[in-house]
């Protein structure tokens, strides 16, 4: 009996001291064949929570110079989105801010400080998730920036098309479950994201 109690205590202690796992990725942001910036992304798992962060810095010359910065902070708990915060800055000025928060089994989406939308559909996969896991058998993802759902179509050979509610198409290419390259329709300009090795 004492042996079983000791074994049980040992297993419980091992579970409680599991180290967090962390993945870091970086992508070159390419425009017209030139690297114009970098996207850094991190996924950290601690207990039941998964924390995502990404930071994208882009500088392009298109009539004039644009410094664009995107910051994402996203938290999932038991594979369900809890919060998402997106900040977008152009030339050092706040351009847009979007927040999603789950409260009482409902999501509240605010943009630039104003309540924009509420919905009840549970979010289990979002745009930032696409950097870390191939969307096998997933047909939709939540856009933290837009506060709505994008469609995902499998094109075969580990290639996917993501379409936002404005009809902009982005393409994602995976190899061995890892995102290798993406072509992002950013509206005025399109970028290519290429995984740094």
The number of distinct helices, counting runs of at least 4 residues, comes to 1
Structural class by sheet pairing and helices:
mainly beta
Give the % helix: under 10%
Outline: globular
- Profile the largest sheet: 14 strands, antiparallel
User: Stretches where pLDDT falls below 50 for ≥5 residues?
Assistant: 3-7
What percentage of the residues does DSSP assign to strands (E)? over 45%
Order of helices and strands: HEEEEEEEEEEEEEE
Number of DSSP strands? 14
**In the residues, how many domains can be counted?**
1
Termini separation: 53 Å
Main sheet: strand order: 8-7-6-5-4-3-2-1-14-13-12-11-10-9
Q: For the CA atoms, what is the radius of gyration?
A: 19 Å
Mean pLDDT over all positions = 90
List the helices and strands and how they pair.
Blueprint lengths: L1 H15 L4 E11 L2 E13 L2 E14 L1 E14 L2 E11 L2 E11 L2 E6 L2 E6 L20 E4 L4 E9 L2 E5 L5 E7 L2 E8 L4 E6 L2
Antiparallel strand pairs: 1-2, 1-14, 2-3, 3-4, 4-5, 5-6, 6-7, 7-8, 9-10, 10-11, 11-12, 12-13, 13-14
């Amino acid at each position: 009996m004492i042996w079983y109690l000791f074994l049980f205590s040992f297993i419980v202690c091992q579970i409680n001291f599991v180290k967090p796992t962390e993945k870091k990725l970086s992508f070159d942001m390419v425009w017209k064949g030139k690297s114009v910036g970098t996207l850094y992304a991190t996924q950290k798992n601690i207990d039941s929570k998964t924390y995502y962060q990404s930071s994208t810095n882009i500088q392009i010359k298109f009539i004039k110079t644009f410094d664009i910065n995107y910051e994402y902070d996203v938290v999932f708990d038991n594979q369900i989105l809890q919060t998402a915060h997106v900040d977008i800055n152009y030339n050092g000025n706040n351009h847009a801010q979007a927040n999603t928060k789950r409260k009482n089994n409902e999501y509240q989406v605010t943009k630039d400080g104003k309540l924009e939308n509420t919905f009840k559909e549970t979010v289990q996969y979002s745009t930032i998730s696409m950097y870390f896991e191939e969307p096998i058998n997933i047909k939709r993802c939540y856009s933290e920036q837009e506060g709505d759902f994008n469609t995902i179509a499998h094109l075969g050979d580990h290639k996917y098309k993501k379409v936002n509610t404005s009809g902009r198409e982005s393409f994602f290419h995976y190899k061995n479950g890892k995102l290798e390259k993406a072509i992002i329709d950013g509206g005025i300009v399109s970028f290519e994201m290429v995984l740094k090795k």
